[in-house]
Amino acid sequence: FTPAQAHAAWERWRARLAMTTTMADLPPDYVERLREPVLLRLLAESLQAKPMPSQAMDFDALVFQRYFEQRVRRREDQAFVDDLAAEMLAQRSATLPLQSLLAHPRLGPALDGDGPGGGESPLARLLDDAVLGEMRGNLFEDDRLRFTYPQIGAYALVRVTLRRAGVPLLQAACELAAAADALPLAWEAALTL
Fold this sequence. Notes:
Elements: H1 3-17, H2 28-33, H3 37-46, H4 59-71, H5 75-91, E1 95-97, H6 98-101, H7 107-111, H8 122-128, E2 132-135, E3 144-147, H9 150-162, H10 169-178, H11 184-192
Antiparallel strand pairs: 1-3, 2-3
């Protein structure tokens, strides 16, 4: 968007979602990020019928935490995302080959087949809800699984890192920062901590 297009789009979302926050109420760094249409929509949905938070809040934390929480509600989906993030951290890779994940003790069953009770699998739901994306391979490379937005992956890494028992916050941030050379999502996660 141009600045004028972003302002017009914000006003449309503001009217549609009954938002009280005007573009002028937003911090300048937020306004700059709103030139990206998907981020504008996500922020508008995050502030729907709510005032702008009184204390300064990181844009990514506000937008992508809400995005995650709206789309990853079921326990089996949360467990799948946590296991996937842990595997990404262990392999130091933001994309993982689907074929090798089939052998994973917890991820494999969610990749191959239906979910509990014959319903939709966690992978199918997370792909449909645009939390995860598939990267098609070719003759020489396997299809790969990734988070749709790097910030969602960073949020998932934070979740899985903080849920490990007994790890102090500073140590968790240092571990994530140490993994950042091979896994840039880890740097975003470390900054969040």
